[in-house]
Amino acid sequence: MMLIPEDQEQEVFMKKTGIFILGAAAALGIAAYALWNYFGTGRPGDVLSEYVSCIEKKDYGTMYGLLDKGSQKEISKKEFIQRNQKIYQGIGAKNMKVTVDKDSEGDKVSYRMSMDTIAGRISFDHQAHFEKEGRDYRLKWDDSLIFPDMEFTDKVRVTKLKGNRGAIYDRNGKMLAGKGKAASVGLVPGKIKDRKASISGLAKLLGMKEEDIDKKLHASWVAEDSFVPVKKMTSAGEAKIEKKLLKIPGVLVSSEDSRVYPYGKKASHLTGYVQEISAEELEKKKDQGYEQGQLVGKSGLEVLYEERLHETDGYKISILNEDGREKKVLAVKREKNGEDIYTTIDARLQEKIYDQYKDDKSCSVMMNPKTGEVLALVSTPAYDSNDFVLGIPADQWEELNKDKAKPLYNRFRQKWAPGSSFKPVVAGMGMNTGKLKPNEDFGYSGLSWQKDNSWGSYKVTTLHTYENAVLENALIYSDNIYFAKAALKIGAKDYAAQAKHLGFGQELPFDIKMAVSQFSNNQKSIDSEVQLADSGYGQGQVLVNPVHLASIYSAFVNKGSMVRPYLLYKKKPEPEYWMKDAFSEKTAEIIKKDLIQVIEHPDGTGHGARTPGVKLAGKTGTAEIKASKSDTSGTELGWFGVFTAGKREKEPWLLITMAEDVKERGGSGYVVRKTLPVIKAKENE
Q1: 10 Å Cβ neighbour count for 239?
Q2: pTM of the shown model
Q3: Per the count of CB atoms within 10 A, which of 142, 145, 509, 538 is most buried?
Q4: pLDDT confidence of 517, banded at 50, 70, 90?
Q5: In the annotation, is 520 catalytic?
Q6: pLDDT at 574 over 90
Q7: How far apart are alpha carbons 143 and 321 in whole angstroms?
Q8: What is the tens place of the pLDDT at every residue in 69-107?
Q9: What's the first-to-final CA gap in the chain, in angstroms?
Q10: Catalytic residue among 318, 385, 420, 551
C-alpha cells in the first residue's frame, strides 16, 4: 500500500473544493509509482527472457549481471562464464526459445525452454526463482537452469557418433576401397636416448626431413610420455621396415582405422582417393552434413560416388555425474553410414592386366560386350592411393610430378590415335554407306601408294603384300593402302556423318567422364584428301577414347548395336545401347568373321593371341605419333582389341589395350604378347 504524506493529506481536507481533482491525481501517482516499483528492470518473466537471449548472443557477462547477489557469491563471474560458455557452445545451442507460463505469480516463474543443438532439439519444463533487490528482480541461479537434472558436480558431455564412409567393392565382393588399418609411426620423447640419432634414423626410413620430425617433437602439447605421431603408412609398408623402426630408441608403432586401398597401384586410377576436406570444400558442403576433419573423394570412383559414399556423423548430448557415469541423455542424433558401392569390376582381371603392363605407359578397358559391364579399367604406370590418404610427403609428390612416365596421368580417360585398330570401324562405316563392298578387290598396289601427283611426295605405306585386296585380307594383313582407298570411296562428307553416327564429338554415356573422341580437330569436316586417306587407317586427326572404341567393337557381337558401358553392378544385367543399329546386322556379322581370321589365320597380325578352346576375334593397330609427315623420330602407340566370338559364350568379354613407345619393341605385336597371359587367365577362371 502506498502512503500519502501528511502535508498532502492536510491540504486535501483544507481545500474541499478540490478534493476530487487532487484525489484523482494522487491515485494516478500511486499507480505510476507502484508500476515503476513493480517492474524495475522488468518483471521476472522479462528478466528470464533477457537471460535466454544473452545465451543466443553469447553474452555471458550480461547473463551474470542478471543474477542475484546470493548467486554471485556462490559462483564467480569467471567460473559462470566458463561453465555456461563451454556447455552452450559445446552443444551448438541456437534458436533458443523460452515460453513463460501465464499463470506464474510472484518470484516463481514456470517456463518451457527449447533449443537446437548438434544432436537435435532439446526441450524441457522448469521453474526459475527470483529475488527482488531494490526495485529490480534478479535471477537465483543454480546448474538446473542449464538443464533441470543438472547439479553443480555434473558435467555435460558431447559424444560424436562416428559414421563410416561407404566401401567400394568389385563384382565378387572384394574390397577396392574401404575401412582398414594404418600404421602410425611416432616417437615417445621420454624414451629417446640420443635425440639426434633417433630423428636421423627415423627420417631415413620414412623418407622424411629431419627438421620436419624435430618440429613435431617441439609442439606445445608434447610431454615426456606423449606419443608424437610422425607418419602414417599402410600396414604392408610398415611391415617391410618394422624391425628397423623398432630398433630406434623412442620409436613406437600403433594401429589405427584408416581408408585403405588393398590393390594399391593396381586400381588407383580407377578408385581414386580421399583426403581431408578443405576449407573451401567445407564452405560449399556444410549444408550437406560435412564437418571439418572428414574425408572427401578427390578423384576416381571416390569422387564420382561421393554423395552415396559420404557418411554423416551423429552426436549424443548427456549429463554425467561426478563419477563420470551417464546420468541422463538429453538428445541423440544417430550417425548415418555411407552407402556401400558394388561395381562391375573384376579385381582379379584388374590385377592381372596391371601386372602385365606395370612397366609400360598403357591403358586397358575390359568389358562384357553383351551387357556393357566394365570388368577392368587400368592405367599404367600408377600412383598408390594409400599414399594420398595417409599424407604424401612433399618430396614424393614432387617425384611423381617430375616422373617422365607420368604416373599421375589417367590414360584410359584420354583419347589417342587408334591406328589400324580403327580399320574395322571404317569398314563398318563404308558398308553403312553402301560404298564399300566387302568382296570388291581394290587391286595390288605394292607397299606404297598415292592417288595421284596432287599428293606431291606423300604416299600411304603398308607392311605386307598379299593377293586379292578384299576386306577380309585387308584386315588380316592390316593393309593401310586398302583402307586409305576405302576412306576415299566413302568421301569426306559421309565419313564425317558416319563418325558422328558412331558417337564421335559426343560425351560418352559412362559413369566416368571420358575425353570426347574426334574424327578431325574441328569435329566438323575433313579438309583434304590426304587427311581423309589417313583417317581410313586411324591416323590423320582421328583420336579415340579406349572405352568408346570398346563400345564400337561391341556392335560386332550385338548384331550391330553399340552397348552402353556401365560400372554399377546389377544382379540381372540388362544391356542398354548407346547407339542402336550403329551397323546393320549383316555388316556386323561380316566384320566379326573377318576379325576371327585376324586371330586364326597364320599370317593374321593378331595370330599370337590364338588360344585353344576359345574362339577369338580381334584387331591390332600401330599408330605413329610424330611432329610432321616427314618426321622419322616419332614414337608409336601399339593397340590390340580382342573379344570372344563364340555364339554360346557364357561369359563373353572384350579387351582393348593401348601401349605407348612400342616402336622398337615390336609394335602392336608387343601388345599381343602382353595380352595373351590375360586371355589365358580369364579363360582359366
Answers
A1: 11
A2: 0.84
A3: 538
A4: very high
A5: no
A6: no
A7: 13
A8: 999 999 999 999 999 999 999 999 999 999 999 887 788
A9: 102
A10: 420
